[in-house]
Structures are given as structure tokens and as C-alpha cells.
Amino acid sequence: EGEQAGVEGLRRPLEFDHVWFSYPDGTGVLEDINFRMERGEHLAVVGPTGSGKSTLVLLLLRLYEPTSGCIRLGGRDIRTIPKRELRRGIALVLQEGFLFGKTIRENIRLGRMDAGEEMLIGAARKAALHKVIEEFPGGYDTMVGERGVTLSGGQRQRLSLARALVRESPLLVLDDSMSAVDTETDRMIRESIEGEGESGTGIIIIAHRLTTLASADRILVLEDGRITALGSHAELVGMPGLYRRLAELQRAVDA
Fold first, then answer.
1. Which is deepest, 114, 124, 135, 140, by most CB within 10 Å?
2. For 225, left (φ over 0), alpha (ψ -120 to 50), or beta?
3. Within a 10 A sphere around the Cβ of 149, how many other Cβ atoms?
4. Is 138 helix (H, G, I), strand (E, B) or coil?
């Protein structure tokens, strides 16, 4: 109970304060990163490959430590938060989430071992997976092949998302984790998880699909390890820069 209270204490603003990060060999990755994410905010991150997007996540999880600067949650330097408590408070979904050779139910429950059936189904619904599971002959008792080989790429990503959602963590991080999902399913998932923000859950989404980015409260543009723009979709399409070029390219493709 005390540990859960500690995790709930992470449902607070997140702040990167003059954060720099370099590899031990001196190769620079992030330069002077400054932004504040409010409680319950939906923040998208976009940038070219190698711009440092995933490094932000690794720093947040304390898999890396900043070379200089400070990351704070609710005003607390995350270096003062026990790693176990910090990582319990952050649900991360990667592009290639690891699945186990167990049933669908067991794979979702790995996110929260005390989750009841209603909670599991609720998470699957938010991940746009419940109807798919119902069509399997074994339903939630369907065995998932080792590493999820029996599922399509989009189904694997949605199962990983359901496992993250069932944790009800203060911060949900989606690192290009909807890339194998079609546009309509992506929209359904975004609409269902937008309600998470109302409960104070912050959402960081790293993505390339413009419709995914556009629905965020704010979009952070990262280029060569530096923030080159930060604002809403409407603000960024009105400014010269990478985001407007992406929007124009997307419009040309859709035309």
C-alpha cells in the first residue's frame, strides 16, 4: 500500500531542466533539453532517426543518467526516487514489445498480477484488442506463440499496450508502438486512451504518423539532439520547420 502511494506520487508534472547527455566516448546525443509536461498532459515527440527521441525515454527510466542537468517528477529529482518505484510508475510500450509463450490473459496480467477479469478486458478494449480476442477460438485463453509469432504485428503491439494500460501507471510512454496498426485502429486507440489524461495520467507518444501527433496537447520536435520547436499541431503547421514539412508531405501523399 505504501509503495502504491509512492507510485501515485509520480502523477505530477515532469520537467527536463537543462538536460545534456553524451555517451562515455564523448559522442553527444542530447543538448540542453528543457520542457515541462503538466499532470495529465498528452505530449508527442517527433524527429528524424537518431535525433535522440528514445534517449529521452531511457533517461526518464534511469537506464541512462544525464551528463548534466536534472529530470524532475513532481519537483523531485528522479535520482532521489528508488528505481523500482520510478519504473513502477512508468508504463513503457516499445515498437517490438516482448511477449511470452503464455495465454493472452497471462500476457496482459504480467502488467499487473492482481488484475481481475474486468480490469483485463477494460485494458484490452482500450487497446482495440477485445473484439479480436473474442474471435479467437480460445478467447483470452488463446496461447501466444513464443515472442508472439501467432499474432500479427499490429496485434502484438496492441497486446503490449493492453499489458501497459492494465498497470494504470501515472505515466504512459508509447515509443513508436502503434507503427504496425492501421490508421483507423490507431484513431480508436488514441480516443480511448485520451481519457487516461483526465485521471491525471501523462502520456508521451513518440510517433511518425501525423494524425497520431496532431491529437496531442503539445508536440515536441527534436532534431540532432536539440528541441527545435514545441507547440500544438495548429501552432507548428503555421511555423516554418520540420513539422510543417512533414504536414505538407503527408497532405501530398493523401491527395
1. 124
2. left
3. 10
4. coil
Query: Longest Cα pair distance anywhere in the chain, in angstroms?
Result: 55
Q: Do 163 and 170 touch, CB atoms closer than 8 A?
A: no
User: Distance between CA 236 and CA 242 in Å, rounded?
Assistant: 9
Q: Between vectors from CA 39 to CA 33 and to CA 41, what angle results, nearest 5°?
A: 70
The Cα 213–Cα 207 span in angstroms is 7
Phi, psi of 197 (to 5 degrees): -60, -35
66: cell is: 544525464
Mark out the alpha helices in the chain (DSSP H runs): 2-8, 53-60, 83-88, 104-109, 117-126, 130-135, 153-165, 183-198, 210-214, 233-237, 242-254
CB 189 within 8 A of CB 157: no
- Cβ burial of 221 (10 Å; 0-12, 13-18, 19+) is buried
Return per-residue pLDDT of the chain as tens, 255 residues: 444 445 555 667 899 999 999 999 999 999 999 999 998 899 999 999 889 999 999 999 999 999 999 999 888 899 999 999 998 889 888 877 778 889 999 999 998 999 999 999 999 999 989 999 999 989 999 988 766 667 877 888 889 899 999 998 888 898 876 666 777 777 777 777 776 656 668 899 998 888 888 889 999 999 999 999 999 999 999 999 999 999 888 878 776
Residue type, 69: G
- Name the pairing type of β-strands 68-73 and 76-77: antiparallel
DSSP-assigned letter for residue 177: T
